[in-house]
Amino acid sequence: TEHYRLYFSLLCFLMALRVMMIVELPLIDMLNLNGLTLARLDYLNIYFFAPFFILMIRSIFPIEFPNLVYRISMWISSVFIAIVVFTPISFFSFTFPYFFGFFLLVSMIFLYVIIMAWIRGRSHAPAYTLGLLILFFGTLNDMLNEIEVIETFYVVHYTMFVYLLVYAYIFADKSNYLQKKAQKLTEEVSQVKNHLEDLVEERTTELQSMSTELERQKLKLESTNRDLVEAMNSRNRLFAIIGHDVRGPIGYNLQALEMLIDNPDISEKERKELLKMMASSSEVTYNLLDNLLVWGRSQTGKLKATLVRVKLKDLIDESLELINIGLKEKHLKVEVYVNEQHYVEADRDQLYIVIRNLVSNAMKFTPEKGSIYISSKKYNGEVIISIRDTGIGIPDGILNKLLDSKSHVSTNGTRGEKGSGLGLKICQEIVQSNNGWMRIESSSGEGTTISFGIKASD
Q1: With contact defined as beta carbons under 8 Å apart, do 260 and 266 qualify?
Q2: Residue 160 lies in a domain
Q3: Which range, 112-121, 151-160, 335-344, is most confident?
């Protein structure tokens, strides 16, 4: 343990106190102590060396020092100290030879402990052995001199001083070694830290990459799921339109034909009425099937525009010819203000579908004797086409949903004309595929204006 530094400091203090008492420094005389107290201090100064030496050796070599021997040695040391403190001088003065014998025995135990440490390769064990041998011989000399076996000087305090110098060297070297080891460990920790930082950064980058990839896969799955849901909705919507809006007009035509076949004597007026109904129904069916085909291509991503130079006026005239019967039936006035010189870059067939749908919608939602205005103007490199009607207009609640791909709105015309709810969405998709834009302006009861812009062709 690290307590050996404390015990070594206490031993150095005891050694300094011993030297002060031997050389009789004036400081001792200034304390004005009586002879008994000085004698007790002298003995205690010597006797305290034993327990602190035991504690220091045990803290340095805790594994090699037997636990039982340590306890017995500490108890015996405590007994010697207690005798000095609590007994008269006539008694404790006779304990000195016994203490020397005990200290000699303890030194031999120290020697055994250090030799065991030496065998086990513990650091500085040879230096410990040398210092202990010096102390051992000094103690043996003073003990033999005390019992008058030999006549020599008391040298234990000198050998103790040498012993402490040896230990001071060991501790200094040990501290230096520990400092170098600590520095090395610090460098290793720094290297490990840097490596860990690099490793953490690498793992963090990998995790971020994995997280990004997982997020991408998640978004892809969500997108695929949305596409699947939309595809299913589109399929259901297509089946509903085919089942209702296509089937109805074809059924009307079938009934009209059966009436003409079964009633050859039908009046000319009734025959014309039936033929008009069949023409109108066929027109609706044609437009609906055409829209369904375009919508189907747009849903599968196959709606591609082949841009060519298109004369706008010709397309509008063709569209009006197709719905001319419907316009006459409702007595609608159509005014066209389209410049003959307005050309656009667009897919001709697709643009024809857009104009036809928008004009058909205007006719559908404009009451009898209403008006439809078709105009064009050139602005900022585009030709802007506007189709305005004096019809029933579009309520705000429906206007916001007309161009929303996720919403489905179908409204009957002024004569109960059916619609698929696809016309305006198809127009918007076609205009966008032709690099254009579309806008709807309407108020309920005040008519509707639909404008779209297509790049002009010089």
Answers
A1: yes
A2: yes
A3: 335-344
Entry pTM: 0.43
Residue at which a domain ends, from 157, 189, 221: 189
Q: 3-state secondary structure string, 265-291?
A: CCCHHHHHHHHHHHHHHHHHHHHHHHH
pLDDT of residue 420: 46
Q: Which of 171, 189, 207 is where one domain is finished?
A: 189
Considering the domain architecture, whether residues 162 and 284 belong to the same structural domain is answered as no
Tokens of 67: 């636990």
Torsion of CA 282, 284, 289, 293, to 10 degrees: 140
Contact 308, 348 (CB under 8 A): yes
DSSP for 329-354, written as a single string: HTT-EEEEE--TT-EEEE-HHHHHHH
- Domain of 406, in residue numbers: 280-455
List, in order, residues 6 or more apart from 386 with CB less than 8 Å away: 373, 374, 375, 376, 377, 449, 450, 451
Residue 75: its pLDDT value, please?
Answer: 95
The answer to the question of residue 16 being in a domain is: yes
Q: Which helix (H) or strand (E) segment is 2 a member of?
A: none
- The secondary element (H helix, E strand) that includes residue 378 is strand 371-379
Residue reference for tokens 């001088």: 89
User: What residues pair up with 377 in beta bridges, in sequence order?
Assistant: 384
Is a pLDDT exceeding 60 seen at residue 415? no
Q: Are residues 290 and 160 in the same domain?
A: no
Angle (nearest 5°) at CA 365 between 371 and 376? 50
For the chain, the domain total comes to 2
- Please indicate, yes or no, whether residues 314 and 451 belong to a single structural domain of this protein: yes
Whether 185 and 304 share a structural domain:
no
Structural tokens at position 74: 């500490």
Least confident range from 69-78, 140-149, 153-162, 261-270: namely 140-149
CA distance 98 to 91: 12
In a domain, 418, yes or no: yes
